[in-house]
Amino acid sequence: METSQRNTERITQQLFGEMGGTVTDGFPVIHSPVSHTEVGTTYLRAPGVVMLARPRTNVAGLAGFLEGFDPELNFPDYVNDPTPLPDSTQLCKTAGQLCYASFGPRRTTNENAAAYIERLTSAGHGSVLEHSNFSFLLYGISRSVTHELVRHRAGVGISQISQRYVSGSVLRFVERPEYQEDPELHRLFEERADRAAAEYESMAGRLLEYQEGGNAMLSADYKTDARKKVQQTARSLLPNETEAPMVFTGNVRALRHIIEMRADAHAESEIRNLAVRLFLCLVTTDPILFGDYVLDTLPDGTHTISTEHRKA
Ligand SMILES: Cc1cc2nc3c(=O)[nH]c(=O)nc-3n(C[C@H](O)[C@H](O)[C@H](O)COP(=O)(O)OP(=O)(O)OC[C@H]3O[C@@H](n4cnc5c(N)ncnc54)[C@H](O)[C@@H]3O)c2cc1C
Questions:
Q1: Which residue out of 127, 146, 153, 306 has the highest number of ligand 1 atoms within 8 Å of its CB and is therefore the one to mutate?
Q2: In a domain, 108, yes or no
């Protein structure tokens, strides 16, 4: 292994630990603690990232297929490669090798998987990376960040909290990194969060009164429908600082693109925070598919990720 790659692995693992990252059964998690204002409004100060799903690859299952070719090609031995790979790398590598029927003794073995993947990313053959998908719970992220994240359409799936269906009881806010170090900006943020929570509650109460009074604007036959109508109206006063958690699934090609765009030094600071955490969870799970990425620290102590092989 290259010394520079070892260094990157060491630095990323160190940062993962500093951010409170843990791995259970192969699933990395970076949780985000919850804070409260004096009157009890809940807010978070960093994104929480929980890997919910990752690939599992059945290489042994290829045996029946490989045995059907000329024995002289020696294809069945493909399933006996002694070097284990992360399942996500294995899946992409097998998909790529299927293209040229590279199952025989002259194929790239798992030992050289990193070089194989780098050939794909450097040549822009990113479609092979679309086979491996990862799903995350993302929380401690504001509505303004998620509005940027959902602009990424290709290769992703998104399920986001519905402000129409959930009530004020799960209302939480997100404090921007810039406010956290400055006592006055922090005080103003807490004041705003308290005010928004109180206004939401008061507006929801008033709308419900209208509802019960049979006001035409909010007429509804059923209780659930009534609540939805109240909440869909009351939510419009909520600020961009409102938390908007989601389950986010992306294939590796899409996730790489998102990390490159959003963990760039010019990206907005809150989404950069999120993209760096996503990267840390991904590289912890699969150091090969994300092995070309370099983590840097900016003068303000925040982090960026870059690669020579952008937009595979
Ligand atoms: C720093 C920064 C500033 C930004 N500022 C603004 C702004 O001021 N206003 C604004 O509206 N947006 C802004 N954006 C959002 C940006 O324009 C994109 O919408 C967003 O980054 C999604 O990226 P993407 O277009 O690559 O889409 P993705 O969905 O991530 O797609 C990945 C790639 O797939 C291909 N692709 C996807 N969909 C199509 C398609 N329909 N047709 C052809 N090819 C496709 C493209 O090659 C694309 O790059 C900003 C983004 C960043 C990072």
A1: 153
A2: yes
Question: What whole-number distance in Å separates Cα of residue 117 and Cα of residue 129?
Answer: 9
Residue 15 sits in the same domain as residue 113: no
- Catalytic: 262? yes
265 lines ligand 1 (CB under 6 A): no
Q: Per the structure, how many domains does the chain have?
A: 3
**Beta carbon of 255 within 6 Å of any ligand 1 atom:** no
Q: Residues 66, 89: one domain?
A: yes
> In 107-138, which positions are buried (b, 16+ CB within 10 angstroms) versus exposed (e)?
beebeebbebbbebbeeeebebbbbbbbebeb
Q: Read off the pLDDT of residues 72-116 as tens digits, 9 standing for 90 and up.
A: 999 999 999 999 999 999 999 999 999 999 999 999 999 999 999
Domain for residue 207, yes or no? yes
Q: What is the pTM of this model?
A: 0.94
E strand residue ranges, 161-200: 173-174
Residue 25 covered by a domain = yes
Q: Is the CB of 153 under 6 A from ligand 1?
A: yes
What range does the domain containing 233 cover?
176-240
Structure tokens at 170: 């799960």
Q: What is the pLDDT of residue 68?
A: 98
Average the pLDDT over 213-234 and give the result: 70
Active-site residue, selected from the candidate residues 262, 272, 277, 310: 262
CA separation for the pair 309, 36 (Å, rounded): 42
Residue 220 has pLDDT above 70, yes or no: no
155 CA: nearest ligand 1 atom: 29
